[in-house]
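User: Modeling request: complex.
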Amino acid sequence: MLGLEQHLVALAILLFGVFAGSLGAMLGLGGGVLMIIFLLLALNIPAHQAVALSLIAVIASSSTAGSVYIKDRMTNLRLAMVLEAFTVTGAVLGAFLALSLPVSAIQAMLGCVLFYTSATMLKGRRSGEPGCEGEGALRGEFYDEQACATVKYGVKNLKLGVAASLVAGAVSGMVGIGGGVIKVPIMNIVMKIPIKAAAATSNFMVGVTAAASAAVYFQGGLVDVQLAAPTVLGIMVGAYVGTRLLAKSRSEVLRRILATVLAFFGVVLLLKAGGVLAW
Amino acid sequence: MVTVEGLISWVLRAGVLTGAALASVGYFASSEVAWIGVLALILTPFLRVMMAGIYFLMKRDLAYFGLAAYVIMMLVIGSFLHMI
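Assistant: Request completed. Predicted assembly structure:
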């Protein structure tokens, strides 16, 4: 039987899951890093178990939010498939590269890139506005509930986007942060995809990549299945709230929240590079 | 009318609800049930890419069907070889 302490841990995970899930679904990041930090620092759960649970959280968040975004046609399925193909390729290449590269240098570098990206998002007010030109087969449209308008957009700088996806796949395994943190800003700033479509499309991808990693942890028996229940329940509620927040928010507000979260991740990566945080 | 988007949406919701229900029952009853719940959850994204592949195939969009097949292949290889 489970003791009182275990129930309290489960309750804490459930409550924090609501927060991580809503932020993750709203921004298309999955919410895994927030989960890891909470499990590590607040609950003292061992690093490999924290990572395994966070992967379960990302899958739950991505599937819950995905069921809403796909039905509402917010997800650009074609674009998701193109970028995901490069991400998984990057992930497999990264597994080989990781053996020979100084990981802390990459973490510090990516941390600085995130600060720069965050500043670009806050500064460039016009940069995220949709443009109609761009790749024909990948163009998309969705109904923006907040703006009461159908938004049509094209995809620009596809080559840069796929290159970034390759890098995102390669480094996310090394630095311990999901590819969404790199892909959402790239889709928005470089490929000029509206933030809402970028978040929904990234949301489709993060779950897929997380599932491949989760399968590895699962085979190794590293998933604490008892703690999976509160994780999934909390994240599910949060992710549903997150999809509503995305629909009802102004794009500019979403961009500002994303910029804040990116700066926070920049700090996290620098702390990891310095050895203060480890997972 | 049944759309492919609607179908993928349904599969995702069914997957996550099944996972959540089994994991919750398992939390109070037995860890074997929770184990199956977690497995169901982990399989949901694989299923999602497969359904997207079928969607492209139905639209005779062979290039994108190929991409979906490639993604699944890499995921399976990657997770078996512990590379991702």
